[in-house]
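Expect chain and fold; see below:
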Amino acid sequence: DSHLVGKLQYQGPALLKQALVRHCEQASGPFQFGTALDLGCGTGLMGEAIRAEAGFLAGCDLSPRMIAKAQAKKRADGSPLYDKLATADLTAFLASRPDASADLVVSTDVFIYLGDLAPSFHQSARVLKMGGLLAFTVQSHQGAGIIVGRDRRFAHAEGWIREALSQARLRPMLVEPQSVRMDRGEPVPGLI
């Protein structure tokens, strides 16, 4: 956490939360979610950002060590930060969830490790309730399609993201260019 937040100036959870707040205000809806799923939760930074707004918070990550760190985090009252954690691939985790069971699916700085996001988008669409939100960050580039950047992470063009969301029957409500972290002293281009 200290390396991400300090050296890399990682601010994905804060920026994603701000975008969710703006969307809810524009939609005249409450900034509250009955069930929230945190894909690639890592150590729980996004969970910390949205815990107060989630009635039930579940997270998944491929790394058992990350899950252990997330399990160690507590709320102010001493209860666990997450109500449920799973060591699992995010698409498999979503596939294990019932249809129309989540109000919010979030993924911060995780889709940079996946090229084709279509399976994640389709599974997210399936688990979201009517009016539910999928909120995420990606690294981006000005060209078309998907590329592997010099940092060996995937970068997705905005047009590709919009098309993949459309194919999953998800409608973009807010798309903003935003860098969520630094790399070699430079802001990494991205989208929220």
In short: The two ends are 21 Å apart (CA to CA). The chain has a mean pLDDT of 93.
